[in-house]
Amino acid sequence: MQAVALLLGLILVAVTVYLIAMPLVKPEQETQGPEWEVEETIEREKESIFTTLGEIEFDYQMNKLSDEDYEQLRNQYRRHAVEVLKAEETVPQPGPKQGAVSVDLEKEIEAEIEAEIQRLVAKQKGKKG
Amino acid sequence: MGKLKTWTVTALLVLSLASGVWAQQVDEALFKKIEANLMCTDGCGMYLAACDNTTAQRMRQQLRERLLAGDTEQQIYAYMISIYGEEVMAAPPKTNFLNITAWVLPFLGILGGGMVIYIAVDKWVFHRQGRRAEKPDAEDAAELAAYEEILNAEMKKYF
Amino acid sequence: MADIGYLALVLALAVSLYSTAGFLLGARSGNQRLLESAKGGILAIAILVNVSSFILIYFLVTSDFSIKYVFQYTSINLPTFYKFAAFWAGNAGSLLLWMWILSIFTALVAFSRQHRDDRSLPYVNVVLLINSIFFLFLLVFLANPFERTGIYPVPTEGNGLNPLLQNPGMVFHPVTLYLGYVGFAVPFAFAMAALIVRNADDQWIKVTRRWSVVAWMFLTLGNLYGGQWAYVELGWGGYWGWDPVENASFIPWLTGTAFIHSVMIQERKDMLKTWNMVLIIVTYLLTIFGTFLVRSGVLTSVHAFGNSSLGTMFLVFLGLMTAASLYLMLDRSSLLREGREFESYISRESSFLLNNLLLVGSAFAVFWGTIFPLVSEAVRGVKVTVSVPFFNQVNAPILLAMMFVMGVCPLIAWQRSSLKNLRNNFLWPMVLAVLFGIVLYVLLPVKRFIPIFALAVNFFVLVTIVAEFVRGTLVRRRMTGEGIPTAFWRLVTRNRRRYGGYLVHLGIVIMAFGIIASHAYKLETVRTVEAGETITIGDYTLGFNGLRQRPEGENTVVYADMPVTKNGNYVGNVMPEKIFYATWDQPSTEVGLMGGLKEDLYVILSTWDKEGTEATFKVNVNPLVSWIWIGGYLLVIGTIFAVWPGRGSQLGPKYTREVSHHG
Question: Do the Cβ atoms of C380 and B89 come within 8 Å?
Fold first, then answer.
């Protein structure tokens, strides 16, 4: 019994030390950042927007959105959806240098959306003032 | 092997119950109502109606006696408090300021919280007015119309 | 062997300290190796605590009475199942159980692939490790489960397990409760970590959604098991006594419920950021506070607390965690600036606010009532009791209002609700509920307004939930042209999160029916009968033919075998028992229960005389009690349905007028 206990104790200490010390001496692994493929990015964007559109439609039909809100949200997300569809059309065929393209494209979409916001804001300001 | 012989909390009590008090009727509904407002007092921390130990039995006995003596509900509570202290009541009696706070504070809290929410919402709603977005212009509308079919088809795919 | 168990705990404490330091330093300096090493430490802690727990189980099951804990809480003839359950019969074991769960949860979080790229993860681990340090500290220095009795020769028999705890309900109650308690530590840790790394978005809510909901489910189950245990084992005819110990687990349930609802507003609208932080902090603190209440003995007697260093340590820890989390929140308050998107007073958003107000209000009411005796003693020097009547009277209106909001909230429009929306969605449920109330009034023998009103409100909620499923199916059919079965199937499976939530609501409604009916319409009688006599209650007649006695192991069971007729038809026997233990002074009561969907016949053998030919019984007819348990099962099914990974369990989209970016 004593021997078993002693052995177990040793194993416990050994495992603990191993788990803590091992990463300290092991050569550092290269950490991989998340790399989305270009289609994947757009696909996610698309899925999200169209899901939202469906949701808006559904909520409206379920009487959970007022007419005005529905119109407004629907137009807003449709416009958004059109942008994504356009972006999808311009995606080049998958090639070797995807990583770089993906970043660019993401930026491009962001910029486009940013411009859209600016435009809307400007328009509203104009109307208000 | 004597387990079956008797298991009474106090044999005497049951005797007195059986012979005297039990025979006469008390208003059972009132009895239950009063019982439901009292605690067992021997430190078991149980609600009288839920407790079945010696003390609880004796207290029920006392209750019945007072009822038979013609005491009103309030008189019985006062009597119980005079013997066992305020602790005997299962809820703080509303006889002094602090105890009344016990009852009122939760509702005051909700009222206060409600006020805070109302004021906040009021501010937010006010803030939003005048920021309502515009209808899309004609150019936009035309573009959307062009994509109408595709949009609907795509939407179905994800729905 | 006991030394190994203790050694494992000491080692785990040391590693916890190391890993905490490792994560802090590693995150600050960006030292990947140090972070990995600290992460290895988390795995080591999990292994150590597991080993320690299994050693305790081994001692319990093999009845090694040289260990004090085993000696105190078990006996030789205890069934193995209960020897195992004695694990959490006392303080030391309960704390070890907490630590056991915490160590596993921490490892799950640290090694989850989902969080691999989360830069706040080191801090999440730190927060969880701080909890580990606290509990391990208690286990090592104040409540060592492996302490020896010091009695030689080793005793051959232990004190035995309190018979009241020898019930399946009491076996599952602590485990589920702790799974819930510890589960809420995870969203708390993510929330704190988000503040530490100055993450202002709702990332912490998204990644901990499952944790919160599942923790909530376990907390609910824990409360339910507690109720079930009280119902069959304590023998007073009820399932909830508003005991401080019960309150201790009910309060975090209320705030936790508020939390899992209000985060939806942040997910959808970027609002209530501060409020959600407050809720998760409060819920977490309440889980610790609940454990403190139960484990320190402060409630049974103020004096017991004076002698308990365990209680003091809990208070210190609570104080530290409160101060730290409040400091973080105030310091980073600029991060929590609200997106302001309120369109009107009556909308989905505002109904969420109302739901939160009521839940937190109810939590406050219960908390206030629980601590009021202490307040009264401190202020007036007079002891008062706060028990069932207080809690029922104060909470009933609040929780009923809560039920009503539960019916309204899912149906009301986002952003702005119009009269048309209200009429379309609520006219029929309202009409049906009123009709239901009228029918009840006509049919029920007891014509009291309040319970009928409560049942009608409940029915309203029921109709709205059913309407959600029906209308959802119809709308989907209209939009997609699918057949009704397909439309229904896709509706619920593609929006599992939402419809699982409705199932949970349905479970709550069914429970509420049971709670209201069993409170308002129970029948109760106490009768002393001689052999040959009968007891009549409601539709039931029970025959009494004298008491019998049988040995059960070393215990003696006195029981009555009572044939029951309902409206003249024989429906079976009930067997109320009193069990006398060899190793325990007080006998325990075993309720004679004949359960059904409509009502439970509930018989307690109270006292007897004359060789068992005369006995006193307490007989109850408790309507719809089984609905409470059925509702509970439905709630579990709904939760699992909602959070099971895969399509449909994700979050709904953000509805916002700003052009939002998804991905």
Answer: no
